[in-house]
């Protein structure tokens, strides 16, 4: 799914009205009808539940007014509270005129704010995604009042006061919603950690916006779901053999951290690699041979950490980092790898820490290298802390353009940035995956997909991120989120990839 800017969303609404021969008011009615169905199905209010709709002067307020009328017609108790303004949108005015006499409709002022008891439902339709300045005056006071109330809040389109694609000023007035319900496509703001306390649980409702226009609209941010990945993972040919899917080399492990090598190796094998060789220090030989018998094991001459780079000629892709440690000799192995590698690289964990501590090595990154940092590791790579989540995205975009690499920023809605500056947010995964070793599993899976020459660098990265999160979701059904460990992810990589695999008989 594409993440559109507010201006692009307005243009899409207008194009939909023109293409489908409907007015903007009719499109608003469609949105309000869909919103009514969602509200009644999800919240299941009784006919005596007080529902308070706070409506601003623009089209977001128009959505709220249309919803109030539909609620009243369905037999529910709707109270409308209007934010006074010098000007109102045409669709707001039209919907206000359509309100039946049975609906309580009053203007807000600081001396007259409604009682909002626990059990009441608040619909926030004050301001939508077009807002571009902080709320002040009465609007800010109303937001503060809503946030202090015990009622259950649903934001329409976006929580009032929250910018759709820009950072907030500190201490800005923003509605803290339990649910945010938007239409057709998500907003960038929904996907950033700093906004979680405002957005709550978000839902996207389809309202039939024109798909051809969406397809033609150019964006630089995407939200990746299963439909987005359809057809990107080819079926495995009937007469394929282990050489078909590549021979990968994994450089990993040090004394006390061989488990990271085991997890990455196991994930690589479950990710469908044809052959896997793992290079570990001598201390890891017995562990690897007994826990991952499907992998070949090369031992380094040193007992505790890697000191030598093996011949790279046999390999289709190389991964380095899980459990590696940061010994000086291992740094030199990384330097040699960056100099000599002619195949795709996947760098994680201590390989990234070595890059951050030795920034001259960044100049050696081969094009299309895939890096997988968490936010702190990424900060070490850039040498500059991010001011906020929006700034971090711009840092990420600039970094991948400058270094001609792919970079995965791990977390909720794990982000992939590409050498052309496009950013993809992953839709799968859960908080149970915030556990030691989860990143090692991701590295192994990505290594397997990068070794498959049938996949482009972009498709390998997108499929790996989605399947990693999906494996976590499948595992959590069995273990619960609290009981999830990284080894559980490995067991579900195969089923997650199978869900994405194209049918060999599809026309």
TrEMBL record:
K(+) binds at residues 60, 124, 160. Binds 1 potassium ion per subunit. Keywords: ATP-binding, Isomerase, Lyase, Metal-binding, Multifunctional enzyme, NAD, NADP, Nucleotide-binding, Potassium. Residues 225-500 form the YjeF C-terminal domain. It catalyses: (6R)-NADHX = (6S)-NADHX; (6S)-NADPHX + ADP = AMP + phosphate + NADPH + H(+); (6R)-NADPHX = (6S)-NADPHX; (6S)-NADHX + ADP = AMP + phosphate + NADH + H(+). Pfam families: Carb_kinase, YjeF_N. In the N-terminal section; belongs to the NnrE/AIBP family. Homotetramer. NCBIfam families: yjeF_cterm (TIGR00196), yjeF_nterm (TIGR00197). This is Bifunctional NAD(P)H-hydrate repair enzyme. It comes from Hymenobacter swuensis DY53.
